[in-house]
Amino acid sequence: MKGLDSLIRLHRWQLDEKRRHLVELERLTQHLAARIRDLDVEIRNEQQVAGSSTEAAMTYGDYVQATIGRRVKLDASLAELQSQRVVAKEEVAEAYRELKKYELVKARNQRLANKRRQHQEQQVMDEVALNLFRRRNDG
């Protein structure tokens, strides 16, 4: 039973680690998505400024090119994180299934041990009752 308890602890720890990794990936995904939204807002603001000022309009093209490059990199990073999240979710699900296997085996072993103990107790009680019955009938 101690070996099984150790395996359960190990698998719980592994599951917790995989969950922590998944949470970190989700946090990073949200952070990148927020950076992309901020960049979009920045582009819209710069468009308005460029539309109202001829001096700003002259440098707007270079700004847009640089910003588009940043946006492409952020989109690629976001896509990579999302694919990592899919893998991490699958790993969490698999780790959970493995943990449940061991927990179910432990629960089954405990049920069997309880049944054996109850059966032994019942045998003792039957023996006591049989001895009492014999004493009454012998006397």
Features:
139 residues; mainly alpha; 2 helices; 0% strand
Task: Give an overview in words.
The structure is a single chain. This protein is mostly helical and 139 residues long. It has one domain. 98% of the residues lie in helices and 0% in strands. The protein has two helices and no strands. Helix 1 packs antiparallel against helix 2. The model has no long low-confidence stretch (mean pLDDT 92).
Question: Quick gist of this model?
Answer:
With 139 residues, the chain is mainly α.
Number of domains: 1
What is the overall shape? Answer: rod-shaped
Tell me the number of strands: 0
| Biggest sheet descriptor | none
Helix fraction bin = over 70%
Mean pLDDT: 92
Taking the alpha carbons of the first and last residues, their distance comes to 48 Å
Taking Cα atoms only, what radius of gyration do you get, to the nearest Å?
A: 34 Å
Order of helices and strands: HH
Report low-confidence residues grouped into runs of 5 or more.
Answer: none
SSE-based structural type: mainly alpha
Helix count from the secondary structure assignment? 2
